[in-house]
Amino acid sequence: MAKKSFSLSLYPWTYTAKYTTNGWIEEYQAKPHLGAEKEATLSEQEREALLERRNSFPQLPLVNFSTQYALSVFEGLKAFPQKDGSLRLFRPEQNAERFKRSMEGILMPPFPPELFVNAVKTLVRQNKNLGYYPRYSDTWEKDGFLSGHSVYIRPFSYSEPGIGLNQSEHPWVVIVSTPVGAYFEGPNNKAITSDMIRATENGTGWIKCASNYVISTLAKKKANSQGYMEAIFLDAKERKYLEEGSSCNIFVYLKDGTLVTPALGDTILPGITRKSIIELAQSMGIKTEERKIAIEEVMDSAKEVFVTGTAAGIAHIESVTHKGRTAVFADGKMGELTRELLLTLKGIQYGSHEDKFGWMTDIE
């Protein structure tokens, strides 16, 4: 089973921006807080009460197009502790551009990328100044930062009041943050193909919108109840080609030395970690392909399989079960290429590897 890494232990500083006839009106707000050290001594009941007050936005209407019809988009990105005590963001400009495209995709006024990046930097910096951030630990280096902690940042859109089917013309953008640990940590990393359909052609599969994650959640929970860590979606039309994991992109390392991931289209989310892994593998001289890949090719010809995403980073898949047949990869362990990509990516994020791609951004 997957470890619940998101505790919703919201940090005090939050951000909202409201779209008006005069453009975006921004506001930073410090929610109730006692200081990180003091809060660590609170009882569970006292802590929950404090966090509940932080997770209160009275200016946001309960009945609206987001809560009624899932007309909302979101992002997820991280700030990583560095050995010198600083925090650095991983490719925030990529999240900013995707957030803009997602808002346009559901007919919302797009949030300018420059506002997005500045707001994220400011929010992380303000919380850090109050002492709300994970400190770098030398112990993380022993397992290649698999146990490393970070700041998870969640920007999302939220519509104005509404009850009928309609588009949002004056939305809010809200940004909050919370500490986060390892995403997958359990007794197995087994996956099973799902009979559910995540996205169809000419739909919203390419948009990071809230509605996409209903099916993803149901499929993953069903897989978990059957003893698997992950659910894998196949295409809606032919039911034979890989699409995604429950909330992550998927890669297959074939026995011929080719790293394959499904080609982007309107049914697959353009993941930022996905993009980074392709660039990283190519820099290592690994042949990469973005194309259709049939589940039967995976079962017959894969030697490693892994999924990627902001939350997961890279998580290896030890086996895939499809229609009663199970294929095991790398003897059920993390494969050599998967491990090398994972350790290199995390090394760049936590500062132990050279950032030759220019992926990391200072918050100052």
TrEMBL record:
Keyword Cytoplasm belongs to the record: no
Cofactor(s) listed: pyridoxal 5'-phosphate
Pathway assigned in UniProt: Amino-acid biosynthesis; L-isoleucine biosynthesis; L-isoleucine from 2-oxobutanoate: step 4/4; Amino-acid biosynthesis; L-valine biosynthesis; L-valine from pyruvate: step 4/4; Amino-acid biosynthesis; L-leucine biosynthesis; L-leucine from 3-methyl-2-oxobutanoate: step 4/4
EC number annotated for this UniProt entry: 2.6.1.42
InterPro entries in alphabetical order: Aminotrans_IV (IPR001544), Aminotrans_IV_CS (IPR018300), Aminotransferase-like (IPR036038), B_amino_transII (IPR005786), BCAT-like_C (IPR043132), BCAT-like_N (IPR043131), BCAT_family (IPR033939)
Keyword Transmembrane helix belongs to the record: no
Source organism superkingdom: Bacteria
Keywords per UniProt: Amino-acid biosynthesis, Aminotransferase, Branched-chain amino acid biosynthesis, Pyridoxal phosphate, Transferase
GO molecular function, one term: branched-chain-amino-acid transaminase activity
Family named by the database record: Belongs to the class-IV pyridoxal-phosphate-dependent aminotransferase family.
Function: Acts on leucine, isoleucine and valine.
Protein name listed in UniProt: Branched-chain-amino-acid aminotransferase
